[in-house]
């Protein structure tokens, strides 16, 4: 296994993966560069969505594929945005229009919202809320073929708090509003290396690499 398709269209994730995977000796090809369109993400769990994305990219390219499904889970919101993180502001608009909690599929019909719209929505959702606890969650799925009977799975979490006022220019998504209390910085105030060292994605990636090593699938014993 030398070439792997990265089953993501998110430029922020792509940047982080490029650094995380550099030591592995794998050539990582973004699916967008291979003309693979975004997969449907219709499921209520991160795991199912990641598996769907990995299979979709592997089927389209004939290559092994790595997918990431991730999001921010806020205690006071019962774990939401969760799997709806990429289109949280649209989700909340749909709920407001329906006058109740919508039952739309997590990936929804439309494209992801802008980070600014999602962040503004999250801040509005937490207005007057004292409990600011939240965590990022990431699950990674690697399939060697679209019908791989043994997908390799790893996950990671990163705990913090949601800030009303954004701080920092690094990272992507909800990072300017995600405070890591132990260092007093937001995820967007960390440099890329520091974020990868402690983030949900960094943790999941290191766990995945461990699984690959166990299975002899890294450069040393590539399949
Ligand atoms: O599905 P792909 O193509 O990978 O790209 P996406 O942006 O739609 O990705 P997800 O479906 O996994 O949605 C995850 C959302 O959660 C947020 N998110 C995930 N990881 C993050 C991180 O490290 N920092 C900030 N926000 C993050 C961000 O808003 C993402 O759009
Ligand atoms: Mg997505």
Automatic annotation (TrEMBL):
Where is Mg(2+) bound in this sequence?
A: 40, 69
Task: Give the similarity note.
Answer: Belongs to the HAM1 NTPase family.
Catalytic residues, per the record, are: 69
- Respond yes or no to whether keyword Nucleotide-binding is given for this record: yes
A biological-process GO annotation: purine nucleoside triphosphate catabolic process
Q: What does this protein do?
A: Pyrophosphatase that catalyzes the hydrolysis of nucleoside triphosphates to their monophosphate derivatives, with a high preference for the non-canonical purine nucleotides XTP (xanthosine triphosphate), dITP (deoxyinosine triphosphate) and ITP. Seems to function as a house-cleaning enzyme that removes non-canonical purine nucleotides from the nucleotide pool, thus preventing their incorporation into DNA/RNA and avoiding chromosomal lesions.
Q: Which InterPro entries match?
A: dITP/XTP_pyrophosphatase, ITPase-like_fam, RdgB/HAM1
UniProt keyword list: Hydrolase, Magnesium, Metal-binding, Nucleotide metabolism, Nucleotide-binding
Question: Which Gene3D superfamilies does this entry report, sorted A to Z?
Answer: 3.90.950.10
Protein origin, superkingdom: Bacteria
Q: What class of enzyme is it?
A: hydrolase
Q: Which HAMAP family match?
A: Non_canon_purine_NTPase
GO MF, any single term? ITP diphosphatase activity
Q: What is its EC number?
A: 3.6.1.66
Q: What is this protein called?
A: dITP/XTP pyrophosphatase
Organism, by scientific name, is: Zeimonas arvi
């Amino acid at each position: 296994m030398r070439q792997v398709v990265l089953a993501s269209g998110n430029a922020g994730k792509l940047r982080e993966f490029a650094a995380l995977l550099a030591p592995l000796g794998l050539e990582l090809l973004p699916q967008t560069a291979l003309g693979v369109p975004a997969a449907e993400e219709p499921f209520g769990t991160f795991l199912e969505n990641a598996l769907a994305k990995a299979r979709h990219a592997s089927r389209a390219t004939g290559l092994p594929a790595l997918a990431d499904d991730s999001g921010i889970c806020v205690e006071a919101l019962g774990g939401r945005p969760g799997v709806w993180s990429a289109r949280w502001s649209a989700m909340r608009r749909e709920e407001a229009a329906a006058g109740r909690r919508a039952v739309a599929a997590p990936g929804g019909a439309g494209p992801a919202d802008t980070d600014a719209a999602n962040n503004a929505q999250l801040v509005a959702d937490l207005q007057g809320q004292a409990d600011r606890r939240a965590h990022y969650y990431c699950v990674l799925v690697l399939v060697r073929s679209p019908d791989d009977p043994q997908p390799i799975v790893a996950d990671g979490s990163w705990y913090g708090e949601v800030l009303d006022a954004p701080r920092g220019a690094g990272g992507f998504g909800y990072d300017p509003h995600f405070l890591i209390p132990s260092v007093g910085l937001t995820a967007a105030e960390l440099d890329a290396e520091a974020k990868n060292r402690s983030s949900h994605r960094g943790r999941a990636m290191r766990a995945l690499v461990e699984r690959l090593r166990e299975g002899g699938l890294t450069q040393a014993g590539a399949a």
